[in-house]
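> example.struct
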């Protein structure tokens, strides 16, 4: 079976909703926190905690109104239909917040797609409406990301499945090592080049669909040796 895993921010949704959320409600301090993450001084979990804590006040109604200004890639619904018609399973994996991932997918009529993300909690603390975050999908041995995408790939895929991954950034670096077919753009392209990971560039899901269809017609969707070995190594250690 072919299983397709898609990043959300910057991929399924062309814009990074999480980044824009914090820029809008935190201001200039949001970039300072991001820079701390990029310098390796904090991990993604601490980055999300700090960003949420820096928001002065944000209730669910205001949050939802902000999220409603964003949408999935216009070609993503057609890509999902293309995949489903061919028996492929599509899953969204995000290191952002579940509250906006769920809302944007539902607005596109794609609430049937399974997704995994960090959990947002809307609470009242004194006189402030707060957004707090928890991490139900962390890895016991690696704390680099809040939501361990690699683990979803491994636990939801059988040994003989072909794993296709579509992504664009920081949290996609780990899972592409375990994927047989990689579609990459933006920062992920540079990482794949540095790590000698075979990838196919894309600008949107229309291109992903076209290129994947061409691979299927040529019977070129097959296991990538390095990815198979990486998956086996993880299971051997476990």
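> example.seq
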């Amino acid at each position: 079976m072919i299983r397709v895993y898609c990043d959300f921010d910057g991929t399924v949704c062309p814009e990074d909703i999480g980044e824009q959320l914090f820029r809008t409600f935190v201001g200039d301090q949001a970039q300072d926190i991001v820079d701390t993450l990029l310098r390796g001084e904090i991990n993604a979990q601490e980055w999300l905690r700090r960003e949420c804590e820096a928001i002065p006040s944000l209730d669910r109604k205001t949050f939802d109104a902000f999220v409603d200004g964003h949408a999935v890639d216009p070609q993503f619904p057609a890509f999902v239909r293309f995949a489903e018609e061919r028996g492929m399973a599509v899953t969204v994996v995000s290191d952002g917040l579940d509250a906006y991932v769920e809302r944007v997918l539902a607005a596109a009529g794609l609430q049937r797609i399974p997704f995994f993300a960090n959990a947002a909690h809307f609470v009242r603390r004194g006189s402030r409406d707060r957004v707090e975050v928890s991490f139900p999908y962390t890895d016991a041995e690696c704390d680099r990301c809040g939501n361990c995408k690699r683990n979803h790939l491994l636990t939801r895929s059988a040994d003989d499945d072909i794993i296709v991954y579509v992504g664009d950034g920081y949290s996609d670096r780990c899972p592409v090592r375990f994927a047989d077919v990689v579609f990459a753009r933006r920062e992920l392209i540079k990482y794949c080049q540095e790590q000698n990971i075979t990838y196919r560039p894309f600008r949107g899901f229309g291109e992903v669909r076209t290129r994947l269809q061409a691979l299927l017609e040529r019977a070129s969707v097959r296991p990538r040796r390095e990815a198979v070995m990486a998956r086996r190594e993880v299971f051997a250690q476990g």
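> remarks
The longest strand covers residues 115-125.
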